[in-house]
Write a structure and sequence with these properties.
Length: about 450
């Protein structure tokens, strides 16, 4: 709930829940911040001249905190697409494509979401269509022949399935002479050797570009993100968070400076209605595959440091994130023992950032007091990271009390014991750094938001 600047409001009559056990009569809000909670008389004394708002029948509670929403990313992915998540059959998909084509200039892409509920598609997928398969190129042509059409495949599922119409196959250069099997992508063909329009394998929109060079090259030809649509999509994503009672989000994974810039613009415009804590990712490998070397690390750490700080009451950029192995997908997670990957390969995973470079990445920012957010997906990756942190503790650069992982889909009791209690790795000397002193001075906004 956002109150106008300068307004003082007392909420009463409803269930005002301060925490799991404490329920009070009233809540006082001044300038959008909670200033009093307790019995009505006490709150009114603390808020002279306040407008009383009766919230009988409602529950007032601290807002929820979503620590891994990818709100901006998912909004950007969905913005250029037409939603066919609830499609029951091919006819539903074609109708949606036809409507989108009618308002799209000829020659531009018409893309749909996958069928089912993102992003893991556990409850429903394209397999639940009446036909049991995605539509082929001929079927999709019934929606439009004047636009390349794609039914997208979204991460993290691998292998996955995507579909294209005839125009899209032509744009991508997929034809009779295209091999049936290229890397980890299968080009389905009919009895005459013609592509049907259905592709399967490493055909996701992200998390698989380092699985397959063929698909990375094809995906680069598809405008799956349209920059002009991102600000509006971000506003819708924030509104969706508010509707769920979320008042704070942590955008700490795959956040590039351009993504943080979107939040900065919204903050400057006063359009943020959730508090956002963000961390810039260095040596990222989720949305693209870049270089992982010492020179790149130095440049990206410098860039991460430059954008740190508070940008009004609703945006804080704090530290950086590193995801040394993976990304978060079967076949790339670094495990202790060999396992079978998504394409039948035997693997122990893959390091994007070598352990030696990771050691540099954790040690280099220590004197600056930069917060380090570690995304670690596999048990083998955990062992290496915790080993480096143990070395740093022995060196005296950290005291061992501040360590942990975030975005960790696979965990073990031993790792949990070693990694807890926090998700930050900060140097022992960080409290003496100018950045840390500024944080401790109270200049940073850290108030709790509330939801009704």
């Amino acid at each position: 709930m956002t109150e106008a600047e300068g307004a003082t409001v007392v909420l009463t009559g409803g269930t005002v829940r301060v925490d799991e056990t404490l329920v009070v009569d009233a809540l006082g809000i001044r300038d959008g911040r909670v200033v009093a909670a307790g019995e009505l008389e006490e709150v009114l004394q603390a808020c002279p001249g306040a407008e009383q708002v009766d919230v009988s029948g409602l529950v007032v509670a601290p807002g929820l905190v979503d620590t891994h929403p990818h709100a901006l990313h998912f909004a950007a992915f969905a913005a250029p697409t037409v939603d066919v998540g609830d499609a029951r059959d091919h006819a539903d998909i074609i109708s949606a494509i036809r409507r989108q084509a009618a308002r799209t200039p000829a020659g531009e892409w018409v893309m749909t979401t996958p069928v089912g509920e993102p992003h893991y598609f556990i409850g429903r997928t394209w397999r639940d269509l009446t036909e049991g398969v995605l539509p082929d190129a001929v079927t999709l042509d019934a929606g439009t022949r004047d636009h390349p059409v794609m039914v997208q495949a979204w991460a993290p599922n691998l292998p996955n399935h995507a579909a294209f119409n005839t125009a899209a196959l032509a744009v991508l250069g997929i034809g009779h002479d295209t091999p049936n099997h290229l890397g980890n992508v299968v080009v389905e063909k009919d009895d005459y050797g013609r592509p049907t329009g259905r592709l399967r394998g490493a055909v996701n929109n992200y998390y698989n570009l380092n699985h397959d060079d063929f698909w990375a090259a094809k995906w680069a030809q598809i405008p799956f993100v349209r920059r002009a649509l991102i600000p509006g999509a971000a506003r819708e994503a924030i509104a969706a968070q508010n509707a769920l009672g979320v008042t704070t989000i942590y955008e700490g994974h795959a956040m590039e400076p351009e993504h943080i810039a979107v939040y900065r613009t919204l903050a400057e415009e006063g359009a943020l209605t959730v508090r956002v804590l963000a961390a810039s990712e260095v040596l990222g490998a989720a949305l693209h595959v870049g270089s992982a070397d010492a020179a790149t690390l130095r440049g990206e750490l410098t860039r991460a440091t430059a954008i740190e700080g508070d940008h009004g009451d609703f945006l804080r950029v704090d530290g950086f994130t590193i995801k040394p192995a993976g990304p978060f997908s079967n076949g790339k997670m670094v495990m202790r023992e060999p396992y079978i990957g998504p394409f039948g390969e035997r693997t122990t995973g893959e390091w994007h950032t070598s352990p030696s470079l990771l050691g540099t990445a954790l040690r280099q920012p220590a004197s600056e007091g930069l917060r380090v957010n570690l995304c670690a997906s596999g048990l083998g990756e955990h062992d290496v990271i915790l080993g480096i942190l143990d070395e740093m503790r022995a060196e005296g650069s950290i005291d061992g009390s501040e360590r942990g992982f975030s975005s960790t889909p696979i965990f073990s009791t031993n790792v949990r014991r070693r990694a807890m209690p926090s998700t930050a790795c900060r140097s022992r000397s960080a409290s003496d750094s100018p950045r840390a002193r500024e944080r401790a001075s109270g200049n940073a906004s850290a108030s709790t938001s509330w939801a009704i």
